[in-house]
Amino acid sequence: MDWQTGQVLHAREALAPRPPASTTKILTALIALERGRLSDRVTISRRAAATPGSSMSLRAGEVYTLHDLLRGLLLRSGNDAAVAIAEHIAGSVEAFAALMNERARELGARQSRFLNPHGLHQPGHYSTAYDLALIARHALAHPVFADLVRQREALVGEGARTRVLSNTNRLLWHLPGADGVKTGTTSAAGECLVASATRPDPETGLEQKLIAVVLDADARWEDSAELLNWGFEHFRLVPVASPGDGLWEVPVRGGREPRIRVAPAAPLAVVVPRSLAGEPVLTLRLPPAAPAPVRPGTPLGTAEVAWGDWVLHQVPLVAAEEVVGAGWATWLVRPALPWLRWLGRQGWV
Asked: How many separate domains does the chain show?
């Protein structure tokens, strides 16, 4: 999957439900970052400290920052950290699982069901390769998450309990451009990996990030590296417009200004095979007019990018600025504006 556009470049059994093991922790971390503060102080419960499996060696009664627990969650794959985070954010593992399912649906990951924050096998806890790619794509858009999963090592704890945690993702040492995201292993799930890498395009220099997901793999490191290398070798990112551009205008009805600038709500780009010749065709679908007042971010149509007859990407267009409603003074002056502008050009005003 291309990170910027969400386009799927290759898939095999991508919608098959499978145990996700510790790749579950991608969603756990995302929710923690969205609902908590990195400086939060978290007291470790007995339940968290006793959680089996991979661990960052937490002890009941110890206090860690949420930031340190996220390091332990994402680098060391600590199941104890996952429970501590869940209890801190939602009060219990069960309540946190409800938040996970709600957030997954919001992200479009509708073929997943999460029952715990760590991914230890539990009947009814499952996801798909496609859903995990979606979740990882959104998580990687969070700068703190992206920074954490690219770290090879991190220092956690205080005083005598200060220690170094190493990332379980071997690709960070061996694959050019590797920058995430999470390993997972249980007897039921097999070896799993959600991986990402970012590289500059050899022709344009533009950076492109790809995400690969392998579940129950016989050779997860080799398979993931092969998928990412294949994607970079055979596909290129073609940018069309960005949210800050404000490229187009829509008439405003009843506004102080007659027109308003609109821009794509998300980066407008497509990923195409390197062998594909030609240029993208942009089609705008704009309303005839927008009624005032118009606030920034108000939806005002869509932009569609096609290559020949193949529609590759579509994003909403939104107002890039504000236009307030016209008052009585505006209505009195507006008919005279062309005349006043003409006088200004003649040097009389």
From this structure: 2
